[in-house]
Write a structure and sequence with these properties.
Elements: H1 5-18, H2 25-38, E1 42-46, H3 49-59, E2 67-70, H4 76-84, E3 88-91, H5 103-106, E4 114-118, H6 129-139, E5 142-146, E6 154-155, E7 158-159, E8 166-170, E9 184-188, H7 191-201, E10 206-208, E11 211-213, H8 222-233, H9 235-250, E12 275-278, H10 282-291, E13 314-315, H11 320-328, E14 329-332, H12 340-354
Parallel strand pairs: 2-3, 2-4, 3-13, 4-5, 5-8
Antiparallel strand pairs: 1-9, 6-7, 8-9, 10-11, 12-14
Length: about 350
């Protein structure tokens, strides 16, 4: 059942009668509310998370032939946006504890052609942004974050969307802050970036980075903005339910088989877009959960460096942790409507499977 259905229907009726469907009050108010929530100077709604990635990279100065360092353990859109700019995704391995870009591997991947670093807080887990930004500062690189799964994530007490020059959001219906269709946004530390993106999304050309960019249609519509605003008002409540489910799972899943944040997670907040578990016998664990009537997910198997589009990419070095995550990780159900008793039941299945003497260890 759609949360907030009555409120959404009432607002939709008023919007329908108003006749103002494109770039009106709902989009303006959502942009203001998102900028405040994300700790940035401005935020611009666009047509999708993929469009947000493309325009953010363009405004950061990524040009044909440039390289963008990123993770291979993410959704295709991260790579696609770079390729569409005729730039080269350069894959660096991930850390086993949080499945995020490993800063210790990033600096060695920098070349004279590197223009930007694109961290992806995968499944909502914060990346090590201090280390990544330090590398970017040393080499004069831009940091553009793909935060499609990380609205609400905190890094050392601040919204992670404020930790780069720009950060992109997705409001696809499966996200923690969802719409009822496609939609995205670009969070901007600099208002000039935001104003340029506003021009581009409405078919206006923009001069930046010694280049003339064409505008195109990438507008977030009023219906999506209205729905997202309703969900935004309830985000903290719904996130608290996700946090409770994650805490239940944590009580069952061994520490070396789930997320581990550096420094014990002080000042960090994971939004749990997904709750992941790893096992060397992932298929066996999946069968055990399936027998218990539990639907699970498998993501990024194989990782992007094994994708057909990898012909346009470069691996900076071997990627053993990304390969291992692709083989071992599965995700458990986690959403605001999941009954807590179901979370206990699911957790116990995982615990029994991974226990010493059980079917398989981590």
């Amino acid at each position: 059942m759609l949360p907030c259905k009555d409120e959404i229907l009432a607002k939709f009726e008023r919007l329908l009668v108003s006749g103002r469907y494109i770039l009106a009050d709902e989009v303006r108010l959502l942009e203001e509310e998102l900028a405040a929530a994300c700790g940035v100077a401005d935020c611009v709604g666009v047509a999708s998370g993929s469009s947000a990635l493309f325009v953010a990279l363009a405004m950061a100065g990524v040009r044909p032939g440039d390289e963008v360092i990123t993770t291979p353990y993410t959704f295709d859109a991260t790579m696609e946006a770079i390729i569409l700019l005729d730039a080269v995704p350069v894959f660096v391995d991930i850390r086993p504890g949080d499945l995020n870009l490993d800063p210790d591997k990033v600096e060695a991947a920098v070349t004279p052609r590197t223009r930007a670093i694109m961290p992806v807080p995968i499944f909502g887990a914060p990346c090590d942004m201090d280390a990544i930004n330090a590398i970017a500062d040393r080499h004069g690189l831009e940091v553009v974050m793909d935060n499609a799964q990380a609205f609400g994530t905190l890094y050392k007490g601040r919204p992670i969307s404020a930790c780069g020059r720009m950060a992109t959001l997705s409001f696809y219906p499966t996200k923690n802050l969802p719409g009822i269709g496609d939609g995205g946004a670009v969070c901007c530390r600099d208002k000039q970036d935001a104003e340029r993106i506003r021009r581009i999304r409405g078919h206006q050309p923009v001069r930046a980075n010694n280049h003339l960019y064409t505008g195109w249609n990438s507008r977030l519509d009023e219906v999506q903005a209205m729905v997202i605003r309703v969900r935004l008002a309830r985000f903290a409540e719904e996130q608290a339910d996700r946090d409770r489910v994650a805490a239940i799972y944590d009580s069952y899943v061994p520490a070396d088989s789930r997320l581990r944040l550096d420094g014990g997670g002080q000042g960090m907040r994971m939004t749990y877009h997904q709750y992941w578990v790893r096992s060397r016998d992932r298929e066996g664990l999946r069968r055990a959960l399936d027998a218990a009537g539990v639907d699970v997910g498998v993501y990024y198997d194989p990782p992007l460096h094994r994708h057909e589009l990898a012909v346009y990419c470069r691996a900076a070095a071997d990627l053993p942790e990304a390969e291992r995550a692709g083989r071992e990780v599965l995700t458990l159900p986690i959403h605001a409507a999941l009954p807590f008793e179901d979370a206990h039941r699911i957790g116990s299945v995982v615990r029994d499977f991974l226990a010493p003497g059980g079917n398989s260890g981590a």
